[in-house]
Write a structure and sequence with these properties.
Layout: H1 3-11, E1 37-47, H2 58-75, E2 79-90, H3 95-112, E3 115-124, E4 129-139, E5 154-158, H4 163-171, H5 184-195, H6 204-210, E6 213-217, H7 221-232, E7 234-239, H8 247-255, H9 259-265, E8 271-276, H10 281-291, E9 295-304, E10 313-316
Helix pairs in contact: 2-3, 4-5
Domain PurM-like C-terminal: 150-303
Binding site for Mg(2+) 3: 27, 72, 216
Organism: Dichotomicrobium thermohalophilum
C-alpha cells in the first residue's frame, strides 16, 4: 500500500463534504471563516514514546492527537472548524493500525464538529510521528489570550486535575500503582484520561464570554499557571484543597500522599485554566453548568509579578504552608 492508497482509503473519507478540502485531491485546501470572525490556528506534534506509548491502540493515538489541538482551541474560546494532519509511519504501515487510527479521528470529528482539510503522509524509519494544525473561529477580536489576566481576578480550572498523569503510571504498570489499591473502574478511568483527553470545546463560548485570560493545561497545572502569569505580568496563589480531583485521584492521594506532586505537575490534563473577575463568577458557574462541564476556583491573581519571585505561582498545602515542588511540570529538553 503506497501513499496515495493510504490517503484515498483512510484519510479522504474524513474530508468528505467539506468543499475546500477537494476530497484531498489537490495540493492545498481553501478555508473561508464565517463573516465577522477571526481564524484561530494551533499546532501540536506527537511522537511515539514521548506523547503516547508505542503500543497504545491506534484509535486512542488518533483521539489524543486531535484532542490536544481541540483543547488548545477551546482555551482560546474558539469553535472548531477544520484541521490538517501530517503523519509519518513506519514502513510498511499496518492496514489494521491505519483503520483504527482513521476510526479514532472519525469519532472525534463527529463529536466536535470538525473535519480534515489536508495534510501530508510520509514514511518514518522508526517511530510514529504526528502533527496536526487545527483551525477554529471566534467573533472578531475576541480570542482569549494568555497576557490579559488582571490583579484581583480569580483562577478557574475545568473538570478534574491529575488523572492523566496518574493514568500513565497505570498504563506502564509502574510498581507505584501497587500502593494505590485501585479497583478496575478507577484504573480504567485514569487510563482513559491519559490515552483520550476530553477537549472542553463545550466551554469555548463560556471562556470567551467570561475569561480575561486563559489557556489549556497540557504540561501540568502549576507550570501552565506560571506561563499564564508570566505572560500577563502577574502572580497567583493556588490552594491544594481547591484543586478538583476525581474519585480515582482522591483514592491515589489517600493511599500515597506523594502522588500530590504528580497530580499538580504531571500534565496531559487538557483541562482549561482561565481567569475571571470576581463579580462574574456566579454567571460563569451557571454557564459552565449549562454547558455540561463544572469549573472550580483554584486560586486568585494576587499581585503583579516581581523580579524577586522564583515562580509567579505559590501553591499552599493543606497545612497552610507553601509547597516546595521538585519541578513545576513537563518541559521538552529539560
Amino acid at each position: 500500500m503506497d501513499e496515495e492508497d493510504i490517503i484515498r482509503t483512510y484519510f479522504a473519507p474524513l474530508a468528505a463534504g467539506l468543499p475546500g478540502a477537494f476530497d484531498l485531491k489537490d495540493d492545498a485546501a481553501a478555508l473561508a471563516p464565517p463573516p465577522d470572525t477571526d481564524l484561530v490556528v494551533t499546532t501540536d506534534a506527537l511522537v511515539a514514546g514521548v506523547h503516547f506509548l508505542p503500543d497504545d491502540p491506534p484509535a486512542d493515538v488518533a483521539a489524543k492527537a486531535l484532542g490536544v489541538n481541540l483543547s488548545d482551541l477551546a482555551g482560546k474560546g474558539a469553535d472548531p472548524l477544520a484541521y490538517t494532519l501530517s503523519v509519518s509511519l513506519p514502513t510498511p504501515p499496518s492496514a489494521n493500525w491505519l483503520a483504527g487510527f482513521r476510526d479514532g479521528l472519525a469519532a472525534l470529528q463527529e463529536a466536535h464538529g470538525i473535519q480534515l482539510i489536508g495534510g501530508d503522509t510520509t514514511c518514518s524509519p522508526t517511530a510514529v510521528m504526528l502533527s496536526i494544525a487545527a483551525f477554529g473561529t471566534v467573533p472578531a477580536g475576541r480570542m482569549v489570550r494568555r497576557s490579559t489576566a488582571r490583579v484581583g481576578d480569580l483562577l478557574y480550572a475545568s473538570g478534574t486535575i491529575g488523572d492523566a498523569a496518574l493514568g500513565l503510571y497505570v498504563a506502564t504498570k509502574d510498581k507505584r500503582t501497587d500502593k494505590w489499591g485501585l479497583d478496575l473502574e478507577a484504573q480504567n478511568d485514569l487510563l482513559s484520561r491519559y490515552r483520550r483527553p476530553q477537549p472542553r470545546t463545550n466551554l469555548a463560548r463560556v471562556v470567551r464570554d467570561f475569561a480575561t485570560a486563559g489557556l489549556d493545561i497540557s504540561d501540568g497545572l502549576v507550570i501552565d499557571a506560571a506561563r499564564l502569569c508570566r505572560t500577563s505580568g502577574v502572580s497567583t496563589t493556588m490552594r491544594v484543597e481547591n484543586v478538583p480531583l476525581s474519585r480515582a485521584a482522591r483514592d491515589c492521594l489517600h493511599a500515597d500522599p506523594d502522588c500530590l506532586e504528580t497530580i499538580l505537575t504531571g500534565g496531559d490534563d487538557y483541562e482549561l485554566l482561565f481567569t475571571v473577575p470576581p463579580q462574574r463568577v456566579d454567571a460563569l458557574c451557571g454557564a459552565a453548568e449549562a454547558a455540561g462541564t463544572p469549573v472550580h476556583c483554584v486560586g486568585e491573581i494576587t499581585g503583579p509579578a516581581t523580579q524577586q519571585e522564583a515562580s509567579p505561582v505559590t501553591v499552599i498545602g493543606n497545612d497552610g504552608a507553601p509547597l516546595h515542588l521538585a519541578h513545576s511540570g513537563y518541559t521538552h529538553f529539560a
